[in-house]
Amino acid sequence: MSVQEQGRRAKAAAATIATATRATKDAALRAMADALVRRAPEVLAANEADVTAGRDAGMSAALLDRLALNTYRIEGMAGGLRQVAGLPDPVGEVVRGSTLPNGLVLRQVRVPLGVVGIVYEARPNVTADAAGLCLKAGNAVLLRGSSSAERSNAAIVGVLRDALSETGLPADAVQLVEASSRETVKQLMRARGLVDVLIPRGGAQLIRSVVEESTVPVIETGVGNCHIYVDAAADLDMALEILLNAKTSRPSVCNAAESLLVHRAVAEPFLARALPALRDAGVTVHGDADVVEAGGRRGVPVLEATEEDFGAEYLSLDLSVAVVGSLDAAIGHIARFGTGHSEAIVTGSVEAAQEFTTRVDAAAVLVNASTRFTDGEEFGFGAEIGISTQKLHARGPMGLSELTSTKYVVLGTGHVR
Amino acid sequence: MSVQEQGRRAKAAAATIATATRATKDAALRAMADALVRRAPEVLAANEADVTAGRDAGMSAALLDRLALNTYRIEGMAGGLRQVAGLPDPVGEVVRGSTLPNGLVLRQVRVPLGVVGIVYEARPNVTADAAGLCLKAGNAVLLRGSSSAERSNAAIVGVLRDALSETGLPADAVQLVEASSRETVKQLMRARGLVDVLIPRGGAQLIRSVVEESTVPVIETGVGNCHIYVDAAADLDMALEILLNAKTSRPSVCNAAESLLVHRAVAEPFLARALPALRDAGVTVHGDADVVEAGGRRGVPVLEATEEDFGAEYLSLDLSVAVVGSLDAAIGHIARFGTGHSEAIVTGSVEAAQEFTTRVDAAAVLVNASTRFTDGEEFGFGAEIGISTQKLHARGPMGLSELTSTKYVVLGTGHVR
What we know:
The structure is a homodimer. By secondary structure, the first copy, chain A, is α/β, with parallel strands linked by helices. In chain A, 45% of the residues lie in helices and 20% in strands. The first copy, chain A, has two domains: 3-220 and 390-411, Aldehyde Dehydrogenase, Chain A, domain 1 (3-Layer(aba) Sandwich); 226-373, Aldehyde Dehydrogenase, Chain A, domain 2, CATH 3.40.309. Chain A has helices at 3-18, 22-38, 40-56, 61-67, 71-86, 125-136, 150-167, 183-189, 204-213, 236-248, 264-280, 289-298, 307-311, 327-337, 350-359, and strands spanning 94-99, 105-112, 115-119, 140-144, 174-176, 197-200, 226-230, 257-263, 284-287, 303-304, 318-324, 342-346, 364-369, 386-388, 396-398, 404-415. A seven-stranded parallel sheet of chain A has the order 10-9-11-8-7-12-13, sandwiched between helices. Chain A has a four-stranded parallel sheet with strand order 5-4-3-6, with helices on both faces. In chain A, helix 2 packs antiparallel against helix 5, helix 3 runs antiparallel to helix 7 (150-167) and helix 11 (264-280) crosses helix 12. The model of chain A has no long low-confidence stretch (mean pLDDT 96). At the A-B interface, strand 2, helix 10, helix 15, strand 13 and strand 16 of A face strand 2, helix 10, helix 15, strand 13 and strand 16 of B.
């Protein structure tokens, strides 16, 4: 079936899902969870075929691990759906309301977006997570996963669609878009009037191409060149703990730190401890001249950082490091190289914290906390569909509210202007 | 100067404007208002040259009227700036905040968008209005007006920039983009990384081309094929009054009605009154077969409506009219031909009102009120930059809040995850 035709079906299904009650949607979410667990053998068999094909094609161990499902991971997907069922329904929430001087009653009400397109890479759990969040927010969803996970995704979507039908909701509210060619991504990007928003989740290149080419509105997610700035007034023990957590606790995610900035006043004592600690944690440091020199003095090898290093989202155990002369220089460096995701300062100074949080332009600005906290669950949103790094519509972790729009409802008694 | 270079200057200015206090911004707005009044002769002389050139080029009387300034209109622009100075500052507003279970203090704070690009047509008052709203919301603005108003716009922007400088704010927060070629609109659309959002205000064609080609995020505004649906349970006196108001009070604006749908059960009595009343008001009716026949019976000429008529935003004293068999058919017609701007039902039935407001997908859905009420000032927002007909970021009249984004500020005490 063409993406256009899938879009038409999704649009028709969206009209039904949009007005479904919370009780119906939650029943569908629970039915989806139960069905995933009940039909786990089917899903695992499909996934096994994907994993075998991936291994034969020489896929890396890390990617294979992201691709592979097991009973535990399927339980996790089911648990995610049940958790979403437990969240409040964003649809119908009155965002603001008042009675105007002329007696008109005005309400701004949260409504679904309509049809959401999601383009994502290997991880098959995104299939169930995204479908659940979109459904709860009253949207239909077109899921375009990676071709390497296509059998797994097809099996999961098949299970979810059956559960929708059993609950009396249109199965076409959840559809998988064929992943065999890049053409289907292009078709999604051009499905203006059928798809209301496109959310690319994945590498910088995918996101850039969608942003450049899409005529459907896009929410950019996830590219994170996140900085930890160790201020002159930092508690260096705290700074080191935050740095190691932000860099090493999960290097492959977008809220991991990729760059360290150290104020010159504390560079000597901080790098003396940080460089060996980073080495011991398996981190490769790419430093400016000051850092290379500091490494040399301590016998810790430091690679020379290029401009590309300072702009890189490594997603690996690499870190760019620069010494800066002032808070102002740190803010300037972040403005130049940051991607507007998460930026942290470690400082004991109220003034420095205030200036940093005011002037740094990013989705999340953290004081004395690891960048790893920028996350929908951590922020208490219950679940997230991604982390927006753009300024329109949603910025930062996107929960259910961010999958909605609003509508003004105006009640009069024959009012004319 | 190239648009790129203007964008760079705007971005630099935006960093200053973003952190300016409300007192400073309001002082600048008042200085801008005073300067416009004081230097009115300059502005009027430039406008006179535009008007003369327009008349020589055969511009229509309606367009010449939109283009022409006079002392009264300049006072109006100054009044608009003073009104914006009186509005609360959206920047810094805490949208939500809580202390997370782990003790992290989370705040979502309103921040400026950065650099706003506005592409608009003849009316020079938009120049001052848009500059004022963007400044108050902490943004720099690139204004790309029409070439027919270029002298007027240059004079106004010159006055505003001087007032900014006198207040100690960077003049580059307000810049006029050259209007001599379409190329500058394209450059604005491609100024990703410099321009944060582009707002096209104007005809459907301009908006379509910006939406199709822009890599900068766009907020669509204003195309309004607005419907009045007269339900079976309508008070026909009320319906006629609302129809005439929505169609004739100001036919050239986006919230004017362009299409009338009448339930078959009341078509005969309603059209018997509406068709002559519309004729008397100078309205040309484009009707379906039922309406043509009803016109024939009453001796009121009705043109045969085509598909194009039902999709048209006339912006003139024309109206498409169709008879529908049910509320469901009316909702289906609106889903097919509407532009998601403002849709009104006239009904005495709670059920019909409920179904219409729930199922019709538009920025504003009105019950027993004229579509003309969809307006930032009417809604109590103080002023508006346009009316968004898209679902992302802002939908409906956009006031100061809609010219902002948000940022999460997270305060910890050494938190790691």
